[in-house]
């Protein structure tokens, strides 16, 4: 191991600790901070981000990377992968001119603020100029990164969330889904039995107790984490100090509970990252799709299954005093797998969710390619909804204005959600083969073997493997839509 | 304003934001963090401290200070004071060789850990080697700082907590107190009427509600702060986001409540610091004695007064359903001003507290001067207790082992507590003169004018004035023990 590599490990450990501090400050901002703390918190976080950015992009880091690269042969495999990840983040961070970075921060901050007003008013015209500026600068960003990475512009953005993957690979996955799902949806809706409503009063305190009980059952360790409340549920903190949040609606336990289970999947991934590489790039998650696969595996594959609901039903009765036909396992299952032509992505079910993503993916590709302009976005959105989901939003609030991603400049993010769903299905398929009587264990609320399998086959690799290679090792075949199609056929067409 | 000065402001703002981030992480550590987060939090905080230290001590900062110093004439008064404070912290931080800083961190971390075990076991021998190492290194620290600052060694340490003051000034204040108080204590004890015990059950949730109500009445703004629980009450965070903590004993409301009121005094000081200088050294508190004076002014001068207790009595009745003779204003007052020859500093009353401080001050001066060795500390402690307080600790747990300060290497800190009590008395005297019918306002729970007076005469100056100059402007005469003596004579000998 060279001096240069050793010096890089020290530098990246420092960045990791700054990042860890930021994740706690971010959590505090969402969960604890009094409103008057907002301006100074923004300055604190900007300062820490700036310091980490300076460390990453400094000439010294560049020189050390070059030196270490020449002595690469002396590194162990994980060290070599670590060096690759260091180089990757350095290359991405130095790809953009400093004034473009600053312009993007300003433009996205402004657009996000305007979006927060424009969305409830359903006023796309209000957002348009700010979003145009974001798109203009994001095109510049994509061009700069494309040049630095030797990739197509949109692929260079994708690479920030799902390294290595490109539009060619995504198209192969998404286009067959876009072709298959509209008809499939029609069939499912034609045969679907409407469930009884899940009425009752669900005190937030009891929802929390039940949520924590399920988190514990799934393997969450409260010695290394907490569950609190925030406006939007998320999983933050660092692997040894995980900060999960939930939001409770006292008239509806299902939504809050499913969100807890979803975030628990993220939390288990973070907790399962290899301890000895905690503070190095190779020990951190780099694939948003893989991260999302872990939350969807828990939420969709496990927790919307009939065996899980059979385990859950008596816990619901115990926690909230509910019962009767509405809370039978049959009806709970009907609720959990209810399909609907909905307008809102975050409320979508497993069958329609991919179509929401395909729409966004097509539109943002076109925006980046200059084939679509912001002014034409609402019309394109509504056309796409009509084609893919067979419904048209009555207003932009429930249409093109619904997501925060574009005002924030997060182009290339949406596809990861759907790739995550595909990964989840394929991984769960492999787990079922590997673990005898897995469904029976889930029925009993025993998730130990499954969590162990995920640790060993997914979490423990962190960023040491490309996602494509990881999925091949964990499941056998390369990533495809097959497992997902089997899954939705089995669950929704039976 | 010179380029150099402008560049310094930017650098110190950056350090301020790092410090602000640290204060929130510190709060989280005490209040929120799950136990397993401890090691990684220590690394995060060490990293941020290191970055701030590097910024402060860098050659570039030194050069900018020199340049700005040559152009000093162009600065406004607050800018000039700011430059003075920058220079002060730079000089103190660069006074010590890096390896001495590191050795002290190691030694005090180890000593503090051993102290946590040795204290409950009352085992001084267990702590002795670690404390000897701390004292040895602190003597080196004092010598290094003495040389850099041109002061006597112990004075150079004092200067870290109370800039400018030295043993000569402290002796003038403390020795007359040490001469006067033992006899005075005897008199007070001879005439003291024993109060009825304050029995009852005081649910923590209601203590919190009452605490928050009193905080609000005193001027605490919950848009810029929170009240939570921790093992030891403290006031942390930053002026726009103050994090106060309390600890509740359900069998005793008085202790928890008085701690809340004490910390509220600290909080009001922080909130009152000048907004436009929030992130510059001159806008921060630099005098620990002045900070302590603000907590003692609230706790001792106001909240242990009869008018305050007359305001509080009905609130206690309302909050906890208590009443009868024990909760009469007379008895509450007797409780609030009860004097006792006690062994423990943190439980001491206003009359004996100064004697606890004088003891520590004398001992730490002797330790630093090499006139006393750690091995002889327990005997010297017990002798001093006998001389000053007329009692001898039956064991070291309740003697020399009771405080964390020395294992932590905080020599020169103790005197600030007593200087704080003197400042509090003198400031409150001036406030009474300045504010017509102040006692009547306190009786009604109206603290607005007092808080305004403190803002204007104390908080708003931040570090722009030396403490001696601030007290002269705010009260007229220079700092002395007169107001404190008047206060305790009036309160305890009537």
Notes on the protein architecture:
- Two copies of one chain form a homodimer.
- With 494 residues, chain A is mainly alpha-helical.
- Chain A has a domain at 1-95.
- Chain A is 66% helix and 3% strand.
- Chain A has 20 helices and three strands.
- Chain A has a three-stranded mixed sheet with strand order 1-3-2.
- In chain A, a hairpin with a 2-residue loop joins β2 (235-238) and β3 (241-246).
- In chain A, α6 crosses α7, α9 (204-218) runs antiparallel to α12 and α14 crosses α16 (414-434).
- The first copy, chain A, is globular, with a radius of gyration of 23 Å.
- Chain A starts with a helix and ends with a helix.
- The relative contact order of chain A is 0.12.
- Chain A binds chain B through residues 14, 17-18, 20-21, 24-25, 28, 32-37, 39-41, 43-48, 51, 221-226, 237-238, 240-241, 278-279, and chain B through 14, 17-18, 20-21, 24-25, 28, 32-37, 39-41, 43-48, 51, 221-226, 237-238, 240-241, 278-279.
Brief sketch in words of this structure:
2 copies of one chain form a homodimer. By secondary structure, chain A is mostly helical.
């Amino acid at each position: 191991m060279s001096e240069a590599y050793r010096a890089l490990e020290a530098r990246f450990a420092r960045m990791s600790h700054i990042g860890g501090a930021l994740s706690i400050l971010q959590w505090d901002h969402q969960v604890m901070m009094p409103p008057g703390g907002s301006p100074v918190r923004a300055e604190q976080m900007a300062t820490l981000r700036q310091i980490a950015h300076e460390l990453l992009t400094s000439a010294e880091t560049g020189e050390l990377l070059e030196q270490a690269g020449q002595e690469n042969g002396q590194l162990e495999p994980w060290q070599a992968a670590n060096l690759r990840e260091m180089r990757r983040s350095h290359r991405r961070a130095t790809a953009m001119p400093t004034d473009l970075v600053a312009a993007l921060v300003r433009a996205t901050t402004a657009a996000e603020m305007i979006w927060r007003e424009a969305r409830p008013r359903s006023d796309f015209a209000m957002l348009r100029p700010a979003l145009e500026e974001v798109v203009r600068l994001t095109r510049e960003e994509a061009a700069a990164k494309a040049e630095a990475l030797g990739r197509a512009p949109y692929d260079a953005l994708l690479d920030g969330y799902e390294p290595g993957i490109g539009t060619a690979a995504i198209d192969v996955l998404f286009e067959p889904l876009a072709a298959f799902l509209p008809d499939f949806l029609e069939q499912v809706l034609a045969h679907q039995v409407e469930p009884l409503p899940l009425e009752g009063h669900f005190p937030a305190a009891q929802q929390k107790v039940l949520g924590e009980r399920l988190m514990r059952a799934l393997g969450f360790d409260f010695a290394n984490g907490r569950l609190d409340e925030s406006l939007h549920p998320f999983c933050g903190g660092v692997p040894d100090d995980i900060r999960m949040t939930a939001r409770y609606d006292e008239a509806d336990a299902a939504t809050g509970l499913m969100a807890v289970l979803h975030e628990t999947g993220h939390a288990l991934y973070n907790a399962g990252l290899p301890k000895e590489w905690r503070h190095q790039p190779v020990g951190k998650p780099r694939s948003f799709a893989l991260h999302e696969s872990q939350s969807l595996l828990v939420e969709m594959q496990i927790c919307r299954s009939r065996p899980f609901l059979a385990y859950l039903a008596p816990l619901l009765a115990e926690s909230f005093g509910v019962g009767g036909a509405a809370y039978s396992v049959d009806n709970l299952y009907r609720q959990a797998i209810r399909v609907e032509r909905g307008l809102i992505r975050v409320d979508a079910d497993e069958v329609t969710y991919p179509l929401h993503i395909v729409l966004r993916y097509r539109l943002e590709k076109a925006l980046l390619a200059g084939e679509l302009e912001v002014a034409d976005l609402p019309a394109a959105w509504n056309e796409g909804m009509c084609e893919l989901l067979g419904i048209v939003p009555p207003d932009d609030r429930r249409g093109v204005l619904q997501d925060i991603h574009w005002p924030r400049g997060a182009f290339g993010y949406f596809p990861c959600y759907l790739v995550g769903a595909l990964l989840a299905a394929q991984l769960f398929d492999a787990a079922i083969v590997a673990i005898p009587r897995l469904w029976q264990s889930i029925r009993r609320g025993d998730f130990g073997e499954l969590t162990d399998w995920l640790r060993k086959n997914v979490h423990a690799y962190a960023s040491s493997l490309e996602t494509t290679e990881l999925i091949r090792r964990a499941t056998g075949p390369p990533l495809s839509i097959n497992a997902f199609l089997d899954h939705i056929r089995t669950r929704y067409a039976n």
